[in-house]
Design brief:
Blueprint lengths: L2 H8 L5 E3 L4 H11 L3 E6 L2 E7 H10 L10 H4 L13 H11 L3 E6 L2 E7 H31 L1
Parallel strand pairs: 1-2
Antiparallel strand pairs: 2-3, 4-5
Helix pairs in contact: 5-6
């Protein structure tokens, strides 16, 4: 299965924030949208991602600072790893595991078309493996029945 098929299945909405947004406003938006990550935009282009992990990291780095005084641009993850719609889900999963990320923006024509969670990709792979296991089990049963005739 490729990434565009997974996006159709999961229909992930893209939640964005500007790089000038305060961390407290970004956290509020994540809470309201029930999202673990926001794509950071500048001039309609993705420039980073702000995740729950970034919230923890900025708290540890500056325990005395106020989230309302911090800007998303100062604490976001700037090395944005993204997928293309025609990329295989297996390749995307390997990249996510290697980069130790849980959110994968999908970019098409320089626009974010969705965000996949690592759980979406793992669930799809598990479903495929279970279907293959079921097929092999039925195949073995048919072979056994044929041997008994």
């Amino acid at each position: 299965m490729n990434i565009s098929q997974l996006l159709k299945k999961h229909g992930k909405h893209v939640h964005t924030v500007s790089r000038d947004c305060s961390v407290v406003d970004a956290i509020e938006k994540m809470t309201l949208t029930k999202s673990g990550a926001l794509i950071v935009m500048e001039n309609d282009h993705p420039v980073g991602i702000f995740t729950e992990h970034d919230v923890f990291r900025c708290h540890i780095v500056d325990k005395t600072g106020l989230f309302s005084d911090m800007k998303v641009a100062d604490v976001m993850s700037q090395n944005l790893i993204f997928a293309s719609p025609d990329e295989s889900s297996g390749h995307a999963l390997n990249r996510m595991l290697n980069a130790q990320i849980h959110h994968l923006p999908v970019v098409e024509s320089d626009k974010i078309s969705g965000v996949l969670l690592i759980n979406d990709i793992i669930r799809q792979h598990m479903e495929a493996l279970n279907a293959e296991l079921q097929y092999l089990h039925e195949y073995i049963l048919r072979l056994q029945d044929a041997g008994n005739d």
